[in-house]
Design goal:
- A hairpin with a 7-residue loop joins strand 3 and strand 4.
- This protein has about 900 residues and is of the alpha+beta class.
- The strands form five sheets. Strands 16, 17, 18, 19, 20, 21, 22 and 23 form an eight-stranded mixed β-sheet that branches. The protein has a six-stranded mixed β-barrel with strand order 3-4-9-6-8-7. The protein has a four-stranded antiparallel β-sheet with strand order 2-12-1-13.
- The radius of gyration is 38 Å and the shape is elongated.
- The longest helix is centred in the middle third of the chain and has 37 residues.
- The chain is built from 30 helices and 25 strands.
């Protein structure tokens, strides 16, 4: 080994000694021949004949030391660097194209992998499942009651285990006396939650069965690692420290592992508490129930109510025991199914009782991020792959043109004895250098743009908390793309150019038009046109979708509404206190300059309504689907404030109090659903079968509104006056005479003047609230526009580069044509006609592909059909203008050729 290293370091000295020794032997031979009577010239000739080729001897000696390959690689590398520095425009273009193409693909792939196949950082993640049986009756969710969880936990067999957790809820925390309230995200879990997942704490311990009761008045809490670092400065003495959660003491018993972010991809809690802490920490949403007559009470602890569904079940099941374990759990769940059946229509009871448990991979089953982003990211992945294909075609065209321009160099080197393998090695080293630099930049671009994509895909200022750490899959994806790039950009063009006979290349003195040689180049350009037209069309479709959504009629005036949202429940405000405070809040807000009206709402839109079953007095024949409705409790003046028209009757008034007759309003959709064309005014409805179906009297009908979001059609909505029901205020809608955001500071100051501790969580315009529901659409528009623009730029570069190269190679031909009488206009038309052929060849399949793609993605569109003519026209116009500009410049250069100079130069 030491001798090998010594040779590696001292090889130049060794080669010098070898050359000197060969010269000495040669000189000795010459002197010996001269001693025999030859002249020096005769002796040198005779010595060379006897001695042989000294350079060849030196080469063979070096081969014996096994250095020629390394030395040739080094020499070719130095030569490649000189060649690339001589062509900085070409080198920079290639590096940028590779970085953008591979970087964009890697960034989208990384995000798609985190959404479609998220990591669950627990031991043996394939054994962890989401446990599902029957959906809840109103919301159709996979939620179960506390007693049902107890039944399943006791029925677990062998090594199988079942745990439970709630949805993640926002809460107020007080870390110390000097700090004010801060928002955090809590999740309630069963005490065996962490043991089922088999994760180990980074500090302290996890929850134990003994933690079902508070110790010393404080509930045990486990912190997320990042939350511990951010809010507690990674305090090593964190264990035993306490803070307030919605006013309830909590004591830290442990810190989760660094990479453990919970089991809901894209939705992470800041800390975990036992399920039993629900009432004390005022955890209240989301939940579902069997409704009227089931004995559900939201004022009592949720944990022991068998008709209140609020828990998600997870399980760890060893391989091979899935069938027996789910059968045991299904049997243990029978009492809960019977409870379901008692509140289910007779025709559906048999189906309910036959429900069984099934296992679903946990990482792909929790949360809504997969359903929300899987399809959009698939579309984006296909588009960015098309961009990469355009880049490959462009690179292959650029490389072919460059190598063709250097064909005389390769021919001369071949005639001097260089083998094709040696020339191919030198060309591959050039390509490898560019690809290596471009690949490194692509990785940096992907890792930098990952958080940007998350921000674009997120609603509000907080990005979706996905784990985008580099993984083997990501690196493998990059390596695969680099290999494809090496083949497309380096190997294939080099191999094609080296197949030409060097003798023919050297003898050729004039380049004439040979259309058959341009077929492959035209096909490659046409492919770029096809894919670019497709990408521009898709970008135009998504752009029109967002434009249509922004201009959709919501049924109310969202342009002049300011929304103020509160967290009174978790701040401990009682109903009595709110009934006293609310009139003061409304009076203060209505007195502000620029405020035209203000009203309270249980839960402000968009997408914040309760699902209920509404019975109609005198109509027991209505099906449950016909009785399904959304429910909202609102204050007087609510419809006037939002601009929702009252079609019939009246809206709620201040006189509608708890001491008066219970009244209600329905929107047009619900009135049509329940009563058809009959007049709903004066009809009685309720939330249960007789006699509970006559609780409320309908006093008005209001217009339909898209309260579930811009895409969804206006749902049937049942409105109640909040003064006659539970006084749960979620927010206040403020109608302004101008830009509502200009009132935000005044509204905030006015409310805090009434109560400095008022838990205001957000003040925003209703327009922005609805815009936050369009994160997927904004992501698609941004990225498809970027990809379409990138594809257009690549196509323009490709067309311009190829036509310019053809003009340079055809200078003599153009000179001949002009000498024979062709005008400059004829030459201009000739070159432009070549571009026109390419556009026609690529445009027809591009239009067909755009139509097919539009139909495939129509579920992501709004107000745009699959074969959208306007989007195609926009794409064709943009591509046509860019292509005309790219082809006009080489055509003008060709038309400016001086025929005499062209012929003399040839």
């Amino acid at each position: 080994m030491m001798r090998w290293l010594r040779r590696l370091i001292l090889r130049r000295r060794i080669y010098g000694d070898l050359a000197e020794e060969i010269r000495q032997h040669f000189n000795e031979k010459v002197e010996a021949l001269m001693a025999d009577g030859m002249s020096r010239q005769e002796a040198e000739h005779a010595a060379r004949r006897a001695f042989g080729n000294a350079a060849l001897l030196e080469e063979r000696a070096r081969e014996a030391w096994q250095w020629p390959r390394l030395e040739s690689i080094k020499a070719d590398s130095m030569y490649a660097l000189r060649q690339l520095f001589k062509s900085p425009g070409f080198s920079v273009t290639v590096i940028v194209v590779i970085a953008l193409g591979i970087g964009a693909n890697t960034a989208v792939f990384q995000l798609m992998r985190a959404v479609v196949s998220p990591d669950l950082p627990v031991p043996h993640p394939a054994e962890v499942y989401a446990l599902r049986s029957i959906r809840t009756p109103n919301d159709g969710a996979w939620l179960y009651s506390g007693p049902a969880f107890d039944h399943l936990r006791r029925a677990a067999t062998g090594e199988a285990k079942v745990a439970a957790h709630t949805a993640i809820a926002t809460c107020n925390i007080f870390l110390n006396k000097s700090s004010g309230a801060k928002e955090a995200r809590m999740q309630l879990v069963s005490t065996n939650f962490f043991s089922v997942l088999e994760v180990r704490p980074s500090r302290g311990r996890f929850l134990l069965d003994g933690d079902r009761l508070p110790a010393g008045g404080a509930w045990p809490v486990v912190l997320r690692y990042g939350f511990w670092q951010q809010h507690f400065a990674a305090d090593p003495a964190i264990l035993g420290k306490s803070f307030l959660v919605n006013g309830t003491p909590a004591i830290v018993v442990g810190v989760a592992p660094k990479r453990f972010l919970g089991v809901i991809p894209g939705n992470i809690p800041d800390f975990w508490l036992p399920l039993e802490a629900q009432k004390d920490v005022r955890y209240s949403v989301p939940f579902d129930s069997l409704g009227f007559g089931s004995g559900v009470s939201l004022s009592m602890p949720y944990r022991q109510q068998d008709a209140l569904f609020w828990l998600t079940l997870i399980a760890r099941v060893p391989p091979g025991s899935e069938a027996s374990t789910t059968a045991a759990w299904t049997q243990a769940f029978q009492p809960d199914l019977e409870l379901f059946a008692r509140f289910t229509p007779k025709e559906q009871r048999a189906t309910v009782l036959a429900s069984s448990f099934t296992l679903h991979p946990l990482a792909q089953s929790e949360g809504t991020i997969f359903a929300q982003y899987a399809r959009p990211l698939t579309v984006l992945m296909a588009m960015v792959a098309a961009v990469l294909l355009i880049a490959y075609v462009n690179l292959a065209n650029l490389q072919s043109a460059r190598l063709t321009a250097r064909r005389y160099e390769f021919a001369i080197r071949a005639s001097l004895g260089a083998g094709r393998g040696r020339i191919l090695q030198q060309l591959l080293i050039e390509s490898g250098m560019l690809i290596g630099v471009g690949g490194t930049m692509a990785l940096l671009l992907a890792f930098i743009s990952g958080p940007v994509l998350l921000h674009w895909a997120s609603s509000g200022a907080r990005p979706i908390p996905l784990d985008l750490h580099p993984s083997l899959e990501v690196y493998g994806f990059v390596v695969a793309l680099l290999v494809l790039t090496f083949v497309a950009f380096g190997l294939l063009p080099a191999w094609r150019i080296l197949q030409r006979d060097p003798a023919i290349t050297i003898r050729s003195s004039m380049t004439v038009s040979q259309p058959q040689r341009r077929i492959l180049s035209n096909l490659m350009l046409a492919m770029q046109v096809t894919l670019t037209l497709l990408l521009l069309s898709v970008a135009s479709m998504f752009g029109r979708t967002l434009l249509n959504l922004n201009h959709v009629d919501t049924g109310f005036d969202r342009q002049h509404i300011l929304t103020v949202r509160f967290a009174f429940h978790r701040a401990g405000y009682t109903e009595a206190r709110l009934r006293t405070l609310t009139p003061q809040m409304l009076e203060r807000l209505r007195a502000l300059p620029g405020v035209r009206a203000a009203a309270i709402d249980m839960c402000l839109p968009p997408g914040c309504l309760w699902n209920s079953v509404l019975h109609v007095a005198g109509h027991p024949e209505l099906s449950e689907s016909a009785m399904q409705t959304h429910q909202d409790n609102v204050g007087s003046g609510y419809f006037r404030t939002l601009g929702i028209p009252v079609v019939k009757g009246r809206e709620f008034e201040d006189s509608d109090t708890g001491d008066t007759r219970p009244v209600a309003l329905v929107n047009q959709s619900l009135a049509k659903k329940l009563f058809g064309d009959a007049d709903p005014l004066g009809r009685q409805v309720g939330f249960g079968p007789p006699p509970a179906d006559a609780q409320f009297t309908i006093v008005g009908v209001v217009g339909n509104a898209r309260v579930d979001g811009l895409r969804a059609q206006p749902p049937p909505v049942f409105y109640q006056p909040i003064a006659q029901n539970s006084f749960s205020i979620g927010g206040i809608a403020v109608r302004s005479s101008g830009d509502p955001l200009l009132l935000a500071d005044a509204v905030h100051r006015g409310l805090l003047a009434l109560d400095p501790q008022m838990p205001i969580t957000e003040i925003n315009s209703l327009t922005d609230d609805y815009q936050n529901t369009l994160t997927t659409e904004h992501l698609l528009v941004r990225l498809t526009s970027i990809f379409g623009g990138l594809a257009l730029a690549l196509a323009v570069i490709g067309i311009y580069g190829v036509l310019s190269f053809r003009v340079v190679r055809s200078t003599s031909e153009i000179g001949v044509r002009m000498a024979l009488g062709a005008t400059r206009a004829d030459i201009l038309r000739m070159v432009m006609a070549q571009a026109g052929q390419v556009f026609l060849l690529g445009g027809v399949p591009g239009v067909a592909l755009a139509v097919v793609t539009g139909r495939l993605i129509r579920g992501l569109l709004f107000g745009v059909n699959g074969a959208d003519g306007l989007s195609l026209c926009v794409a064709l116009i943009v591509l046509g203008m860019a292509g005309a500009l790219a082809s006009f410049l080489p055509a003008r250069r060709a038309a400016s050729v001086d025929p005499m100079r062209a012929l003399r130069a040839e």
